[in-house]
Amino acid sequence: MFSSQHAPTQTDLSRYYWLMWLGFAAHIAALLWYFAHGPQRLPPLFLALSIGVLLNGAMQLKADDYYRQLCSMGLRTCVGSIAVYLLCFTAVGIYELGYSAGSYIGSGGNPTSIETTIPTALRDAYLIALLAGFAFYLGYFASLLRDRMGTNVE
Amino acid sequence: MKNRLRVLRAEREWSQAELAGHLEVSRQAVNAIETGKHDPSLPLAFRIARLFDMPIEDIFDDSVP
After folding, report:
1. Which Gene3D superfamilies does this chain map to (chain B) (predicted)?
2. Is residue B1 a contact partner of residue B39, using CB atoms and an 8 Å limit?
């Protein structure tokens, strides 16, 4: 009724929703692969699928209102988890700085070297990016499943 | 926000997919609006009002959260 020349069809719009499931499955596969084999051997198919869906979720081209709302929840979850990660990282950094300063003073001014207590895996940017993407999917699907509870599809 | 979309659709004997086709949104969006899980944007609310030839406030009730 309100069609314009470049308006997405019903099929186009519904495709976004099931593509999100496909992207989520690919993302989980990529994460599992990362833990099993490390970042070097990640299968390009899983990554391409997940990256494509994540980009679509960020740009939301030709998507409808509801899809944007779900993606917005996903993006909020993603940004929120990054903030929590940075907060934890900062807290550990402050603790290590204080410990380092205390050791220096306690040892009478002798420089001491202290190993960081943050595990190497949590300083891996690749893993952090994968986990941030996972947080996006979690936010999206938590919102979708919450909405679907008690609804009738006709 | 409560709305009368399901009733208006039933009066015309449209399925959710048919209504979605008229509004150029997905069936999932129509379902979410009908169940009050999603509030449509202003442009979509105007499209709904034009489709049913009714004022927006006769379809959507913002007095009940």
Report:
1. lambda repressor-like DNA-binding domains
2. yes
The pLDDT tens digits of the residues spanning A77-95 come to 999 999 999 998 888 888 8
Tell me if B27 and A69 make a contact (CB, 8 A cut-off): no
Please give, rounded to a whole number of angstroms, the shortest distance from the CA of A72 to a CA of chain B.
13
Cα–Cα dist B30/A44, whole Å: 36
Residue type, A40: Q
Which of A104-113, A132-141, A142-151, B28-37 is predicted least confidently? A104-113
Q: Is the dihedral of CA A59, A63, A69, A71 positive or negative?
A: negative
Fold of domain B2-61:
434 Repressor (Amino-terminal Domain) (1.10.260)
Give the number of other Cβ atoms within 10 Å of residue B14's Cβ: 16
Structural domain spans, chain B? 2-61
Nearest CA-CA partner of A77 in A98, A57, A49, A62: A57
The residue count for chain A:
154
Contacts of B42 by beta carbon, 8 Å cutoff, 6+ apart: none
CB-based contact A138:A75 (threshold 8 Å) = no
Whether A2 shows a pLDDT value over 60: the answer reads: no
Q: What is the ipTM of this complex?
A: 0.83
Q: Is the pLDDT of residue A5 over 70?
A: no
Within 3-32 of B, beta carbons closer than 8 Å to A belong to: 15-17, 20-29, 31-32
Least confident of A62-76, A97-111, B9-23: A97-111
